[in-house]
Amino acid sequence: MRSLRVVLMAASVLSVFSLRAQTADEIINKHIEALGGKDKLAAIKTVYTEYDLEVMGQQVAGATWLVNGKAYKNEVSFGGQKIIQCVTDQGGWAINPMMGQSSAEAMPEDQLKAGKAQLDAGGPLFNYAAKGNTVELVGKEAVGAAQAFKLKLKTKDSVESLFWIDPATYYIIKSSVKTTAQGADIETTVSFSNYKKTDYGFVMPTTTEISMSQGLVLNITSKKTEINKDIDMKLFEMPK
């Protein structure tokens, strides 16, 4: 009888973990459908975006180029100079004159690991298991007026991120990731809003607020998005 109780208890525990995993996947599946559906997301090859960036009371222009799964580049014109970050499946580099970095330098490993999340056009939760990542539902938490689902994603490179999904829309309304830069821990929190459907049928946020642990806040407003336009891979080559 005792062994039967042990078996039943073990089965009960396993069923709880199974239900929890299914619940996380159910939330993710609804999230993918809200963005346009898995077939639509899987067919995205490139994404080009132009945006306005407001930082420290100044507004500047920026653009991003993404070749799905292969390369991502962000370029901002600031004070007559360009700040560039580039991540590919082979490595990464950056130019930041504001930090005394006038020529391209290889990106530190910690930043590169975190930056690889930018390579996914469908977002980090899309096909997460196929990428070698894991996702755990850790509960619900208030984000504004929403009691959002809180998911923890861990990549195969051991980078952990948190995502909050609005149960009313199944859009990601907030994310958070901790990285290391120049020996200091940095937590970056991103809030997403004003989701709109592109001509391609892919739904994307047009307003993004990025808050960093050192007090810097960036407000980004998307002006133009083009899906599956031709992008030359030479754009991502590190300048010599």
Account of the protein in words:
The protein has one domain: outer membrane lipoprotein receptor (LolB), chain A (Clam). A hairpin with a 2-residue loop joins strand 3 (71-78) and strand 4 (81-88). The chain is globular. Strands 6-5-4-3-2-1-13-12-11-10-9-8-7 form a 13-stranded antiparallel sheet, with helices on one face. The longest helix is centred in the N-terminal third of the chain and has 34 residues, at 2-35. It has three helices and 13 strands, in the order H-H-E-E-E-E-E-E-H-E-E-E-E-E-E-E. The termini are far apart. Helix content is 19%, strand content 49%. The chain is α+β, with helices and mostly antiparallel strands and 240 residues long.
Give the structure's gist in a few sentences:
The chain is an alpha+beta fold and 240 residues long. It has 3 helices and 13 strands; from the N terminus they run H-H-E-E-E-E-E-E-H-E-E-E-E-E-E-E. It is 19% helix and 49% strand.
